[in-house]
Design a protein that fits this description.
- This protein is α/β, with parallel strands linked by helices.
- The chain has two domains: about 1-105, Formyl transferase, N-terminal domain (Rossmann fold), CATH 3.40.50; about 110-215, Formyl transferase, N-terminal domain (Rossmann fold).
- The chain contains seven helices and nine strands; from the N terminus they run βαβαβαβαβαββαββα.
- It has helices spanning about 15-25, 45-50, 65-80, 95-100, 125-130, 165-190, 205-210, and strands at about 5-10, 30-40, 55-60, 85-90, 105-110, 135-140, 150-160, 190-195, 200.
- The strands form two sheets. Strands 3-2-1-4-5-6-7 form a seven-stranded mixed beta sheet, sandwiched between helices. The protein has a two-stranded antiparallel sheet with strand order 8-9.
- Helix 4 links the parallel strand 4 (about 85-90) and strand 5 (about 105-110).
- Helix 1 runs parallel beside helix 6.
- The longest helix has 25 residues, at about 165-190.
- The radius of gyration is 17 Å and the shape is globular.
- The termini are far apart.
- The structure holds glycinamide ribonucleotide.
- Glycinamide ribonucleotide (GAR) binds near residues 15, 45 and 137.
Length: about 220
């Protein structure tokens, strides 16, 4: 069985990367991690890739005068790696429409809130500040708008008394570590299709059918 070639983009800790590497260590997992790219040379996550024997590359955004220049360098290494799917796992740069369009339904992001609530770089802090009792995580295909795009999966995480960004963020990441590898496996096995905002799996009824079914 040919495994789907996945590149992972990170900016820091890389715990979601670690979850993907652990899943891909199983020869029966339908995807392999072929390259890990960080826009930060000091990202601790790079060490996880090295420990797993996965080639890494640093493409520092600061080295480029323009976003398109940075993204051209990113694309060059993605193409060199033969990537078929790109996962943004704690990658904290906004990507242009040109880059997003060059990976149609092949670019997946993990975001620490139940989108469309709390988009942006401070989703956990914003959820705490809003006083919500439940937040969570969203795995979605990437579109031009930040933290927008067809949703593959979401999971709820309770906000507990006394939570701070560290405790809540860590509880959310634990859920992400289970959900992200499952989403990547679903894509790798095929049968995931995107129609407008809807992601459908070939073994589930299309979302439109559910919405229009008077029995639901
Ligand atoms: C994750 O919680 C991910 O959802 C979030 O950053 C964390 C990265 O953790 N992503 C964003 O906030 C993107 N807007 P990790 O580096 O340990 O995987």
């Amino acid at each position: 069985m040919a495994r789907l070639k996945v590149a992972v983009l990170i900016s820091g800790r890389g715990s979601n990367l670690q979850a993907l590497l652990a899943a891909a260590a199983d020869p029966d997992y339908p995807a392999e991690i072929v390259r890990v790219i960080s826009n930060e040379a000091t990202a601790p996550g790079l060490a996880h890739a090295e420990a797993a024997g996965v080639p890494t590359e640093v493409v520092e955004h600061r080295d480029f005068k323009s976003r398109p220049g940075f993204e051209a360098a990113l694309n060059a290494t993605l193409i060199d790696a033969g990537a078929e799917l790109v996962v943004l796992a704690g990658f904290m740069r906004v990507l242009t429409a040109d880059f997003v369009d060059s990976w149609p339904d092949r670019l997946v992001n993990v975001h620490p809130s139940l989108l469309p609530a709390f988009p942006g770089a401070a989703a956990v802090r914003d959820a705490l500040a809003a006083g919500v009792k439940v937040t969570g995580t969203t795995i979605h295909f990437v579109r031009e708008a930040v933290d927008d795009g067809p949703i593959l999966a979401q999971a709820a995480v309770p906000v507990l008394a006394g939570d701070d960004t560290d405790s809540l963020g860590s509880r959310i990441r634990t859920v992400e570590h289970a959900l992200l590898p499952r989403c990547v496996a679903r894509i790798a096995r095929g049968g995931v299709s995107v129609v407008g905002k809807w992601v459908t799996m070939d073994d589930e009824p299309p979302a439109e059918a559910v919405l229009t079914n008077p029995a639901v």
